[in-house]
């Protein structure tokens, strides 16, 4: 028997019956993904263990060569190892080795050998145990994270200050004694920390409360904090819990205030189980989230005393209020120092809790909350500066090829058990978890000033750098009772045992609170006196049996996750949630409700569908596939974090079923909309004439990207009656090819191009018809049967676009030429910078409320770039293209052509599901928008793909992705207009004879240029079957000549008398037919 080597203490059981590799320790991994990956049974009856992570493990071990007897030291990376909490030991599966690595196993009495290509790669020894047949692989797990720390550069005072969430100098000096391993803290440099200056400045003194708890869980403080905007994962609220004895802090992030009750119950239960003790007292303010009967009953059943403050006396819950301020200050200082956007506050506040619990505090005799809570000194060798750059190691199995870099450039945004959370610079800024990285803690990737995390502090012009550096913490005077001198030393550890337990008294001017006032009484102070029907107090919501919500998609949420992208857990310690917790948060049904019909027909689009009221069968099918895909790939925590978005009411009656604070905010948004309508004279309140019917309306709610709630009153145009409520409907807008043609002329003439955006343009349109509309829901007084007589157009009316067009073109024409390209409310003014140009723009902005966008940078979704020196204009849709590439996860393997060589579109004989058909149509629609705007090179491919939309096959979808890969490689292509060329209209025409294998129809292709830039292009199937290539070319020439005639006439109308355009073709027969007015026998049947 081979003796056990003490240098390799970790044993992996080689089990021929195991279905996979398993470990019970997350420290074994060099990289892993978190999620719900199934379960496994155990020998113990009724006990099931759950797989909550999987990844790669690197082991160091010895291999014995049977032929020579030599022992070799090896490092082996084992992929697809599953983490099972509660497993008795580590297990390796020789079957998995054989299948995945082509290894062979040879069993001996004393050991087992694994071979690959006749070379030994693994040795398992028999260990003397009760089960004497068991063989183990003796290893030492390689901890790459330790290696990266040992190779780190010299750490300065500022680095440690930033790692601990911008704590004070006094508290930082106590770190070496209170934590492990012992570190050396350099002296302070004396400069002002910009993160502290921006995120922690205060004027508020505190007052003491000497009463303290004597043991864990004896007294818990809690408070709820609302943030002004939603976070990365759509969180809006933070609920904090502070143990009075140890000062250990826990937080939970909530999407809705109503989640607080269940979160409190979970926290109390978890605290009692983890600490083997009982919660005795729970101190909060008397906010509504702490007062429901369900929570009161829970406290009574567990014998917990719930202490509440007097109304509006937040001082009585001072420790919780002070904790909120401390965490916010830390989070703000770290986030601002790293130049991260506001929505990343959730990562900053989680990190703030992580370092807060590891910070020595004066009131704890310079011990840390973690030490008092867990009984051991916390380790700090893993701490890094929040928001700094990290080069994250990518395991070989996750790299695309051997030339792919071994690490990826990411931003560090938080901690997780045995690892870190990183923000990827690609993949729509998705998150990545790994224990392996090399940090550069002086570089901040998201900072604009070269990545150096030093934020400029606004100051007067005469202020010098010396003035700033001399005003250090050491020289600053003590704050007065009124707090007239700001302090940057704001860490909780600074305060002595008599530190205040109440928030500061307000001073003038009162700084804004980090938490909104808890007033529950409605107010209508903002409503004007003459808006008697807009009063919030008049609002009398009716009950509704069925409630419809629609999810508001986040601005930067990725639609698909790659296998190495995971989301952080929802607790501050980074521990993976238990499966029971996941099942409580979101439960996936086994089957979705059956549809009324088993047919796969597309459901009709009724008016309610237009406004998003109900899901049709196609939506249900798509949601079903998405939910099950995410559940299988990432677990239910993915769904909870990524798909549970902010809830927006769909109908006005849905406001009855949301928290009161949100309800009031939505009603105020409705009032703002009604004020705007009244200010513009959109309506007057009258009695309904006899014999007339009213048009219905509805409220449409939306949350803007900055978190603002927006309500818009929309008429239900489908309830209008033709001949009574409307007559003409047509409303012209500029065509894309017209816009490109004018841009080409602007390049030739070196004209100015400036834009304005008309706000709520439709509301300016005057109605010629007599239209009556019901009063808005929720703002109609009882027994008031009057209606609105509409004088101006409202969004949703059929003639609104026409009314706005008439308003826009009502002014008399001038003899001078100024061109205005109008697409609803987007206006681009083009011409020489004369007094007429300036006056026209000023007149538009004076007549209607507009935003002056200055020189046009974007129009109709097309980016516009100018080289004025060389008279060149460039058009592209690169921003939109990047979004489409990320949406469909096309990030690699670019191609050189839009279509595969020899690919033929043959009608699909099968039947595509509604979900797949919609997915395919989304892809084609995205390509169509690009093709119409600036990409003539994909016109043929897009048209061919669009012809399969009714019943697409998988190969057509793959071909659509192939087009995207072509666009990936050519994403920087632009249309260029060269003004110095002085080139007028030039056209090119061609055809592909009998291209369609099913009906032998040919395909027409043409494009037209001006100033050497493409302004018009076409690719389409011809109407008539051509019996020869000459006929096909002749029909293509006819199409192209029509386009040339139209463009020539348009240019003449705006004052350009150009020479006859050139039309180029490559078929002599078709050129002869087109040049001679002779109709031959072979051309009489042509339908053109």
DSSP strand count: 42
Helix count, DSSP H or I runs of 4 or more residues: 26
Strand content: 15-25%
Mean of all residue-level pLDDT scores: 71
CATH superfamily of the domain at 170-379: Ribonuclease H-like superfamily/Ribonuclease H
Q: What would you report as the Rg, rounded to the nearest angstrom?
A: 35 Å
How is the CATH topology of the domain at 170-379 named?
A: Nucleotidyltransferase, domain 5
Helix/strand/pairing class, anyone? alpha+beta
Biggest sheet details: 11 strands, mixed
* Uncertain regions spanning at least 5 consecutive residues: 145-154, 452-624, 630-646, 723-730
For the record, the CATH class of the domain at 170-379 is Alpha Beta
In percent, how helical is the residue content? 25-40%
The gross shape turns out to be globular
- The termini sit apart by 92 Å
CATH architecture of the domain at 170-379, please?
Answer: 2-Layer Sandwich
